[in-house]
Write a structure and sequence with these properties.
It contains twelve helices and no strands. It is mainly α and about 260 residues long. The protein has one domain. It starts with a helix and ends with a helix. The N terminus is likely disordered.
């Protein structure tokens, strides 16, 4: 471990463990800062971390983060940890902090069983997609087949819509497979007998992580907010996508 990085990380972990991240809560049950999040914030954050992937790579040996655990608790902890140790610019730092606050109060177990099963079903379809456009097609098919079946009330339809907007907003930038960081990740897995579709096409893997994170984040935000929850879906979905794709990137960089 690099001594300088190790000392910085130690101080960061002490700070994280010794300070609560309690934030003023809105009527929706979500932290007030969380409500500021939107689709464009997600794109901005992911563009920034992709541009600074070398900084994140530097901490691979210093941070004990579980890049396989996609629970909200771990996503939140990961964002807080990165904010403590990395000197990110003000705007992406603020959005990452808002996402971490939001993820801290989300609870997928609060989502009703039928809604969560529908998420798992569409998530399975997304996992099988072999290109970005196929994810768009899956989401469009889901919306068409489930219209009028209660998905509007539990936030699922709105969460899927946010996921579609996130994909659309980022398809020319953060999902561009020609980005240097994706090329580097893909080259590192060439010849690996256990490599996956996402390993050879990390841009697609990011899109999948964003889509799943947005949907489960949105429906969980709706569950936290309760009746009349739709205003909570957008920021919760954005937070879920930010956390999901940051962890996906770390998993690729540190694998």
């Amino acid at each position: 471990m690099n001594n300088k990085n190790g000392f910085v990380v130690l101080l960061a972990l002490i700070a994280i463990s010794s300070h609560a991240h309690a934030q003023p809560t809105s009527e929706s049950g979500l932290p007030e800062q969380c409500l500021e999040l939107g689709v464009e914030d997600h794109t901005m954050v992911i563009e920034y971390v992709l541009d600074n992937a070398d900084t994140l790579y530097m901490y691979a040996d210093d941070l004990d983060l579980d890049t396989e655990d996609r629970s909200f608790e771990n996503l939140s902890y990961t964002l807080y940890t990165l904010l403590e140790v990395a000197d990110f610019a003000e705007e992406p730092s603020y959005a990452m902090e808002a996402a971490a606050h939001c993820l801290e109060v989300l609870d997928a177990s609060a989502v009703n069983e039928e809604t969560y099963q529908q998420f798992l079903n569409v998530s399975g379809d997304i996992s099988e997609a072999r290109e970005l456009q196929e994810i768009f097609t899956i989401l469009e098919g889901f919306q068409e087949s489930n219209m009028g079946h209660g998905v509007e009330e539990d936030g699922l339809a709105d969460a899927v819509t946010v996921a579609q907007r996130i994909l659309d907003d980022g398809q020319a930038t953060i999902y561009n497979a020609d980005l240097e960081v994706y090329s580097t990740v893909a080259m590192s897995t060439e010849g690996d007998p256990v490599s996956t579709e996402e390993d050879s096409n990390p841009a697609l893997g990011m899109a999948k992580a964003d889509t799943k994170g947005a949907i489960v984040g949105g429906i969980s935000g709706c569950a936290v907010a309760g009746p009349g929850c739709l205003a909570a879906v957008l920021p919760s979905a954005a937070a879920g996508a930010i956390g999901g794709s940051v962890l996906e990137l770390l998993n690729n960089l540190w694998d």
